[in-house]
Amino acid sequence: MRRNFVAGNWKMHGNRAMVRELLDGILAEVDQIEAPPAMAVIPPAILIPQVAERVAGSAIEVGAQNVCDQEGEGAFTGEISGAMLQEAGCRYALVGHSERRALYGESDALVGQRALAALGAGLTPIVCVGETLEERDADQTEGVVQRQLQAVLAATGADRARDLVIAYEPVWAIGTGRTATPEQAQAVHAFLRTQLGSAAPDVTILYGGSVKADNADALFGMDDIDGGLIGGASLKADQFLAICRAAAA
Ligand code: 13P
To answer: Tens digit of pLDDT for each residue in 141-176?
Structure first.
């Protein structure tokens, strides 16, 4: 279902004390947001149980930063299955974050399998796509995000497109302070929507890459931008809350 949505990807940040402080800050004010968007935090896996317990009963949901491509259980050392994440309190799982693709060699096909496994466990995959600066400069943006998205749809079946959240995160805008302009992001979001067939009007498409309290309004005001996947700014309660307010209906 398409809806306004803000998710905070904590990446490899945090510890138990930080979880207490950050969530205390968020939970103290989140109820005062009128017509709030859907909201989730995505901590490192080991902090998921603590986070899930703290946010239970609030409007904040929980996601995982990755999910094993294999369903069921088995000899997959170091992996965490969708069922385990689900049992720990997750509703979402990121798949194909650019850091996973670039630093850990995840292929389009593997990302597709991870999305399929997430769906199999009842999780909503947040499928990350995005081009590097080199690819943008070579005018390959649409080709890259199309390839990345189609690999996921090939694995899940196009009929599952409705069950995905898509996150457009241009690699050159992640952690750089250099945001895509609202118009640049909107153009790619509109293109991504054309790739979703009959599900297009129903799919939530987030923008990620240096979203802050002071640029969120302009980004979320664009027709095809339904909210944000937030990195650095999601580690500060006041910033995260301001971004959630910007995505309120
Ligand atoms: P920043 O908001 O820190 O640029 O990170 C974006 C991101 O990668 C979220 O997944």
So the answer is: 999 999 999 999 999 999 999 999 999 999 999 989
Nearest of 177, 121, 127 to residue 154 by alpha carbon? 127
CB 114, CB 95: distance < 8 Å: yes
Q: How far is the CA of 118 from the centre of ligand 1 (A)?
A: 22
Residues taking part in catalysis: 97, 169
The residue range of the domain holding 88 is: 5-246
Closest CA to 92 of 47, 59, 127: 127
* CATH number of the domain where residue 194 is located: 3.20.20.70
175 token code pair: 């952690």
Alpha carbon of 68 to ligand 1 centroid (Å): 22
Ligand 1, atom 1, residue with closest C-alpha: 231
pLDDT 10s digits, 45-84: 999 999 999 999 999 999 999 999 999 999 999 999 999 9
Position in ligand 1 atom list of the atom nearest CA 212: 2
Predicted structure pTM score? 0.98
In short, whether 229's Cβ falls inside 6 Å of ligand 1 is yes
How many A from CA of 75 to the centre of ligand 1?
32
Ligand 1, atom 5, lies closest to the CA of 231
Q: Indicate which residue's Cα is closest to atom 2 of ligand 1.
A: 231
Instruction: Say how many C-beta atoms besides its own lie within 10 A of residue 96's C-beta.
Output: 28
In the chain, the number of structural domains is: 1
